[in-house]
# Entry
Amino acid sequence: MGLKIGDTAPDFEADTTEGRIKFHDWIGDSWAVLFSHPKDFTPICTTELGYMARIKPEFDRRGVKIIGLSADPVEDHEKWAKDIEETQGAAPNYPIIGDSDLNVAKLYGMLASEEAAGTRTAADNQTVRNVFVIGPDKKIKLILVYPMTTGRNFDEVLRVIDSLQLTAKHRVATPVNWNPGEDVVISGSVSNDEAKKIYGDWKEPKPYIRIVPQPQ
# Structure
């Protein structure tokens, strides 16, 4: 079975563009986003790495560390960074894991265990297009898997992190297309008596839909 939401994110040691890390120690008490790439010098991943560099302050503001991974050596990542800066206007300002032996890709279920490192193309590792959001408790909170032909929407990842952080603090859930500041729904685990104490009144189009303003 592959990794699921709620599983502990596998720990590992690896070299990165910012030195060797032990993953759980690197996360510390923060939230983290691990996003992976099948190979260096690929076009869609180039746009993604540059965009993440530009919006890194948004992750910083939320207390979220970001780390990339590509199934190539760190030395190649450093060369690639120059292309990323030239074409996207920003070089990666966060670590990128070197995973040329595919250890982390396999550990996270992004590749089958029988896949071999060595001479290959990005298409050989095309499942290595994942996003993992990991909480301070080292549990996986979100898993996204993208095809080779579709660039990832990291604004959506930020939106989900806003929801995850809100719902970790308050007993609410966020409805479809929710954005920060909009109404939320009281969690089903909260009884009406508890809800009255916590939230006072609420809108109730159906008994199982109890709508309140976003808690602060």
Notes: The chain has a mean pLDDT of 94. The domain at 13-151 is CATH 3.40.30.10 (Glutaredoxin).
